[in-house]
């Protein structure tokens, strides 16, 4: 009997030098460097460039890339109008998908799939994703868009455009670390989708709109939003253990725990836990954090031997909430970071492109005949 790799689990279809994951041991490396070191020392801009170039950049290379991103922060007036005219109350990921697709219509280089063009479009998209997402958030809430500032970091400028207030250095850095943690994660569903589209020699905007569509689904993006709903439902830390035990007794899934690859702690969740704890201790907003601590303990006690531990979504929602980001925008923020991983992966794959065309095992009939419509029951 033909073996089927359900969900393509374990199927290796290409080589990549970008990201390595060892799920059993909870290891995540970009260019061989542990994610903890990237989080501690690096920035979103630097990791994005490193993945695009396949090496740590020099100071002058990073400064040039940073300047290039800043120059490209503004979005065309026509796109601002499209975002402004979008219906209210829509899913922000639908809005992002539409805006990115529209951006492609306005880009004279959009159909160019040479490596140089893919690289140039990537820089523009990384820069403009931030402005687009902030603009969607503000217009959906009935506020004016905030123009980008050139004197702030990518992370700091995003928070500024989102809230209209200049963030503190600590808030910018915290958000920067959250972006770093989400930049790339090997062959996840949205990166695979971007590559599948690019393998047909389609354009960058098509690759990225496909990826946004894949990320939108709740099994990929969006679990951190569900974690916040759970925290609100639990309400107070003393109710957490009982709440989780009842859910587990009735075989319900707990959001923000478990992972297809990690069968140990997701290293990104450990980094975020430390920052969530720091913010909670400093600002006294410890209710959410205390609930999460209790949930983590209860889940690990009961499911640790099945390899179920907190994933990156477990703590990210509270960090984002503390930064004033609404939960409907958690998945667009995932995209804000992952755009660099998507583009770097597409560019890497297109260097030795092969059309993706898996097959399925046919289980239907083989000896049927056409029946005239009037003779069918
Ligand atoms: N809560 C409770 N039990 C769980 C959970 C969970 N979140 N996840 C897995 N389990 C249990 C399963 O019920 C199963 O138990 P069984 O052996 O008694 O049947 C066992 O652990 C193995 O689970 P699988 O479903 O085989 O694990 P899989 O690797 O397919 O699932 C998934 C991974 C989909 C992420 C799952 O853990 C889940 O739904 N988690 C909650 C949603 C979530 O947090 N998603 C974000 C993932 S990270 C990201 O995309 C950035």
Let me know the largest β-sheet.
3 strands, antiparallel
Class per helix and strand makeup: mainly alpha
Order of H and E elements:
EEEHHHHHHHHHHHHHHHH
Into which percentage range does the β-strand content fall?
Answer: under 5%
The CATH level-2 architecture of the domain at 223-323 is identified as: Orthogonal Bundle
**Which residues form runs of ≥5 with pLDDT under 50?**
none
* CATH fold topology of the domain at 223-323: Cytochrome p450-Terp, domain 2
CATH hierarchy class name of the domain at 223-323:
Mainly Alpha
Bound ligands: acetyl coenzyme *A
Total DSSP helices: 16
**What separation lies between the terminal Cα atoms?**
34 Å
Radius of gyration: 22 Å
- CATH superfamily descriptor of the domain at 223-323: Cytochrome P450-Terp, domain 2
- Estimated helix fraction: 55-70%
Number of β-strand runs: 3
Overall pLDDT score: 95
Instruction: Name the shape in a single word.
Output: globular
In the sheet with the most strands, the strands line up as 1-2-3
């Amino acid at each position: 009997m033909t073996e089927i790799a359900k969900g393509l689990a374990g199927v290796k279809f290409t080589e990549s030098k970008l990201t390595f994951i060892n799920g059993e041991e909870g290891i995540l490396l970009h260019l061989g460097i542990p994610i903890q070191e990237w989080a501690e020392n690096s920035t979103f801009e630097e990791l994005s460039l490193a993945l695009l170039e396949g090496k740590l950049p020099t100071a002058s290379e990073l400064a040039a890339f940073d300047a290039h991103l800043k120059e490209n922060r503004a979005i065309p007036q026509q796109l601002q109008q499209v975002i402004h005219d979008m219906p209210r109350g829509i899913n922000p990921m639908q809005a992002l998908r539409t805006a990115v697709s529209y951006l492609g219509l306005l880009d004279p280089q959009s159909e160019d799939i040479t490596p140089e063009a893919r690289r140039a479009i990537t820089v523009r998209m990384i820069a403009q994703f931030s402005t687009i997402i902030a603009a969607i958030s503000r217009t959906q809430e009935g506020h004016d868009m905030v123009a980008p500032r050139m004197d702030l970091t990518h992370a700091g400028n995003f928070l500024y455009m989102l809230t209209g207030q200049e963030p503190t250095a600590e808030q910018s850095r915290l958000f920067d670390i959250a972006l770093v943690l989400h930049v790339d994660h090997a062959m996840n569903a949205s990166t695979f989708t971007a590559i599948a589209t690019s393998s047909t020699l389609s354009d960058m905007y098509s690759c990225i709109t496909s990826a946004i569509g894949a990320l939108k689904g709740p099994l990929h993006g969006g679990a951190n939003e569900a974690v916040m709903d759970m925290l609100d439902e639990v309400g107070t830390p003393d109710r957490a253990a009982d709440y989780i035990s009842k859910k587990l007794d009735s075989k319900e899934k707990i959001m923000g725990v478990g992972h297809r690859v990690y069968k140990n702690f997701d290293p990104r969740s450990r980094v975020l836990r430390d920052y969530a704890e720091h913010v909670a201790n400093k600002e006294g907003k410890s209710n959410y954090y205390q609930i999460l601590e209790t949930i983590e303990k209860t889940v690990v006690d009961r499911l640790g031997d099945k390899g179920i531990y907190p994933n990156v979504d477990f703590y990210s929602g509270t960090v984002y909430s503390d930064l004033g980001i609404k939960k409907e925008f958690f998945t667009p923020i995932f995209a804000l970071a992952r755009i660099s991983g998507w583009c770097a992966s597409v560019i890497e794959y297109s260097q030795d492109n092969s059309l993706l065309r898996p097959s399925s095992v046919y289980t239907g009939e083989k000896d049927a005949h056409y029946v005239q419509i009037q003779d069918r029951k």
